[in-house]
Write a structure and sequence with these properties.
Strand content: 15-25%
Binding site for Zn(2+): 62, 95, 98
Bound molecules: tetrahydrodeoxyuridine
Cofactor: Zn(2+)
Oligomer: single chain
Active site: 64
Number of helices: 4
InterPro entries: APOBEC/CMP_deaminase_Zn-bd (IPR016192), CMP_dCMP_dom (IPR002125), Cyt/Deoxycyt_deaminase (IPR050202), Cyt_deam_tetra (IPR006262), Cytidine_deaminase-like (IPR016193)
EC number: 3.5.4.5
Mean pLDDT: 97
Distance between the termini: 46 Å
CATH architecture: 3-Layer(aba) Sandwich
Radius of gyration: 14 Å
CATH class: Alpha Beta
Largest sheet: 5 strands, mixed
């Protein structure tokens, strides 16, 4: 099993299960690329989501976005970790838009982004690694 600094294994497994369960709800009739995500918030709660596509293709959205929506609706405001699960030989990684959406609710160096699939954890990064020199809420202070 892949160890992730700052997250205990049991929690990583909970995130993986929550994301894989959410993936079963994926609505992806066009790409057929099913995605599940699970966000760990500052209260230790897990919020899950799937991707939801649309016949008007650009209107679809990612699993991470659904999960963040659930976190916000539950009163969570800081994302500590996010598990994203896909399938196939290519390891999943959040799209650029989702990296920016996650940035809103985390300090980039503090958010652990984990990629997984049915075989387990495949890779992990900090958001800082995936979205360096990011634009965030601080830029709008004193503007
Ligand atoms: N997708 C996600 O839900 N999350 C990612 O991290 C990558 C891409 C979705 C969007 C679309 O429904 C499908 O995967 C193919 O791009």
């Amino acid at each position: 099993m892949m160890q992730i600094p700052g997250l205990n294994d049991a929690l990583v497994q909970q995130l993986l299960k929550a994301a894989m369960d959410a993936r079963q709800h994926s609505y992806a009739p066009y790409s057929k690329y099913l995605v599940g995500a699970a966000v760990l918030d500052e209260q230790g709660r897990i919020h899950a989501g799937c991707n939801i596509e649309n016949a008007a293709y650009p209107q679809g959205w990612c699993a991470e976005t659904t999960a963040l929506g659930h976190m916000i609706m539950a009163g969570g405001r800081i994302a500590r970790a996010v598990m994203v699960t896909g399938a196939g030989s290519e390891i999943i990684t959040p799209c650029g838009g989702c990296r920016q959406k996650l940035r809103e609710f985390a300090q980039p160096a503090d958010l652990i982004v984990i990629a997984g699939d049915s075989t387990g954890v495949r890779a992990h990064w900090t958001l800082e690694q995936l979205l360096p020199a990011s634009f965030g809420p601080d830029h709008l202070k004193n503007a």
